Structures are given as structure tokens and as C-alpha cells.
Amino acid sequence: MPAQHNRTRAKERNNVLNRPEFMSLNQPVRSTHEGRSPVKKYSGQAGPPQQAPADTKDSAQLPEEDCMQLNPSFKGIAINSLLAIDICLSKRMGVCARSSSTWSSARPIVKLIGITGHGIPWIGGTMFCLTKSYTPAGQEVLLNLLMALILDILMGAGLQKLVKRRGPSEGTRGILDYVVMDVFAFPAAQASRAVMVTRFFLNHLVLAVPLRILMVIWAAVIGLSRIMIGRNHLTDVLCGFIIGYLQFNIVELLWLPSGTCQLLASAIPL
User: H/E element holding 62?
Assistant: First the structure.
């Protein structure tokens, strides 16, 4: 018996699977839950197993709204696509935006067209005509036009400060831009002013048909010049047209009658 026991121990020592590097072959296969457990045991080190960090547990319990959404909504995709198209078209239409642009030679003319839509020339010209007008009907129209121009400047500046959208081609702003508060791009203040003034003239002045057509063309050219010069996007101009159209409706609702205009004209030292 002792001899047989010694032979068994000799066979175990000579067995290759009993070597340390092959010990894992003799161990039973662990289940998938054990393999995925966060507890890790390093070979060759003694001591208790290290616990998984608490961040992994917290990240597994995060609410759904704090996780990154890899599948954005259809609404977000549509809005981002429309904005990308708007920026691309606006940059393509900005042929006078820089000195190296395609139509850089026409840049002074386009700037001159844009000046005809600034608020300062319109307010100054309206006040000058008001000093030269002595009829009640003329003073009524001019005072309401002055109120409409002031409303347009305040509303346009307020929306621009609220949105703070930059133009497609950022250049140096002039003093006139800061005076009339036309610094940001949305909405296009000159486009809204052009539409509002055009509707005002078409409704309250007796104009011939060619002049009425020229007024409509002038408003459209003002909006186009803002895109060509690189100051506004296409959507800025379109929204400016809509805002100017709605501003005239507000002016009609707040229209000052002839008696009120006479009192204001007498009170204002013109």
C-alpha cells in the first residue's frame, strides 16, 4: 500500500496539467454572470478583490433624459437641415460680401441701395417734410409715418437683441448701423422697414401705377441687397418682409387721428 501511494503521488507530480500555467484548464467553466461581474482579481496578488468604482453603478442608474440620444428626432433633423440650406444659399448669394467676391466691383452700388432702407434717413426725411407741411391731412400722414418708423426700429432692435444671430459674412459695422441698432442679422431690419413703408405709401398716398410698381421693386431690391452684401441670411430677409407686413397692420390699429396730430404738431417745436 505505501508503494502504491507513492506511485500515485509521482504520477500527479509528473502530470502536465498540475503545473501552475495549466491550472486554469482544470477549473470549471464559470457562468456568464460570473464573467460579467465587476469584481476583478489580479493574478499574482494576494488580498481581497477590488470593488468596482461607484461611477459605473451611477451611470447604470442614470435617467433617460441625462443620456446621450444617438437617434435625434425628426423635428431636430428637419430644422438643422433647413438651417444648413439657408446658410449655404445665403453664402452663394453673397456675391458682394468681400473684396475678393465675384461681384466685388458692384459692392459700392449695393451698399448705396442698402442705405436707402436705413432708419436714420427715413426719420430725418419725414421730420423735414413735417416742418414743410401746413395742411392737416399732410401732418396726419407724416406723423403716423414717423410713429411707424420709430415702432419699426424698436421692434427690429428688440428682436435682434433677443435672437442675436450673426450674418453669413461678418464684417466691420459702421456708425450708422449702431445708431439705428442694426447690428445682428435676424430679422433684416431694412427689409421690414422697406415693406412697411411700401404698404404705407400704397395705402395713404395717391401714386401712379408706375410708381406703385417701383415701390414694390424697391422693397424687393432692398432685401436682395442685404443678402448680396453678406449682412443677412435668406430667412432673415423673408422674416423681415413678414414682420414689416404685420407692422403696417399695427400702425393701422394705432392710427392717430387728425385732431391728435394737430395737437402733437403744435406741441413739437419744429
Answer: none
From the CA atom positions of the chain, what is the Rg in Å? 38
Instruction: Note whether 191 and 222 are within 8 A (CB).
Output: yes
Cell of 259: 385732431
Q: Give the separation between CA 247 and CA 238, rounded to whole angstroms.
A: 14
Rounded to 5°, angle at Cα 90 from 70 and 219: 135
Residue whose entry in the numeric block shows the C-alpha cell 500555467: 21
Choose between 116 and 44: higher pLDDT.
Answer: 116
Can you read off the three cell numbers belonging to residue 90?
Answer: 445665403
Q: What is residue 105's DSSP assignment?
A: G
Which long-range contacts (C-beta less than 8 Å, at least 24 apart) are formed by 176-180? 176/115, 176/118, 176/120, 179/120, 180/118, 180/119, 180/120, 180/153
Q: What is the pTM of this model?
A: 0.66
State the pLDDT at residue 136: 85
Per-chain mean pLDDT for the chain? 75
Residue burial 189-220, b: 16+ Cβ < 10 Å; e: rest: bbbbbbbbbbbbbeebeeeeeeeeeebeeebb
Residues 95 and 226: beta-carbon distance below 8 Å:
no
Query: Residue 142 pLDDT more than 80?
Result: yes
Residues 215 and 207: beta-carbon distance below 8 Å: yes
pLDDT of residue 3: 55
The pLDDT, as a whole number, for residue 195 is 94
